[in-house]
Amino acid sequence: MSTMTPCGVRLAGCGSAVPEKRLTNDDLAGMMDTSDEWIVQRTGIRERRIVDPEKGEGELSLATEALRSAIDDAGMVPSDLDLIIHASVTSEMTCPSNACRIIAALDAQPAGGFDLVAACSGFVYAMNVADSLIRSGRYRSIGVVGCDAMSTAIDYTDRSVSILFGDAGGAAVLVRDPDPNRGCIHQTMNGDGRSWPSLFIPNSPSDIPKDFSDSGARMGTLRMDGREVYKFAVGKFREVIEDALAATGLSVDDISQFVCHQSNIRIIQSAMEKIGLPPEKVYINIDRFGNSSAGSVGLCLDQLWKAGKVNEGETIILVAFGGGLTWSSSVWKV
User: Fold this and answer.
1) Which of 7, 14, 100, 120 is catalytic?
2) Among 229, 147, 261, which residue's Cα sits nearest to residue 271?
3) Looking at 14, 100, 128, 261, which residue is catalytic?
4) Number of structural domains found in the chain
5) pLDDT < 50 stretches in the chain
6) Domain range for 28
7) Active site includes 120?
8) Considering the entire predicted model, what is its pTM?
9) Which of 71, 139, 146, 311 could pair with 298 in a Cys bridge, judged by C-beta atoms 3.0 to 4.6 Å apart?
């Protein structure tokens, strides 16, 4: 039964998962024409984690481990969840959804589940949707997981994308709270589908626009117009943060952490300089994990949570942008 009694949403637990296998810049230099210095200068990345299919690892195993960790952190059991929202662009199958396979792996039935596809914005989109569903009165507890095994969608002969991406999953458990001021106090979920050719994964040659300068990478792997994505990300990064602050009447001083998608160190630094964000409020792990798409923001949130930098009563802002093109923000009262 639903209830219309106003409620809030509490962040009950966080979790994450990354593969053990590291792919360093020197490893990539042995595979293509690049160098550690060239990659670090342009992206800030020194290494990234990638799944090992020979060990049975993939997007599903990472997502399952991340959500299991969040459930444990919340002091709950999987069957306590009413719903699982799984954000990814690298699920092994579209039917069944990986959300349903996670339910089976965790023995979380009869929880509902669905996959959400918003590329790098996926985790923030999913957090916003989960908050809204709990506030509707129809759900008490929702598991949110953002995860991508981008190495499974990369052709490592294509230098333009292979240096950027890694594999990771981040998760959160959200539960109903009696304080209506707790949880998401402002959110945006936006997109501009006209720009989809800037970042896409074609499954057949017919999926590639005629005017797109294709890299020749194999089908089923990522294509990117790096210049266009960079211009989009630099502008949107600043825009969504400034809009979130304006909409809530908050200042930079009122925010304890800006939890940002780890796309490129130069994009993050540009936003920090233009908005005036202090380094201690902007967590960066791209040097160690690369861009893990939907796993990025959730991984950062969990690492901040475990480090004691996300505390009850504080306000944080989640920000992401990615393929679609999509962008999203979520202002949370923890």
Assistant:
1) 120
2) 261
3) 261
4) 1
5) 1
6) 1-334
7) yes
8) 0.96
9) 146
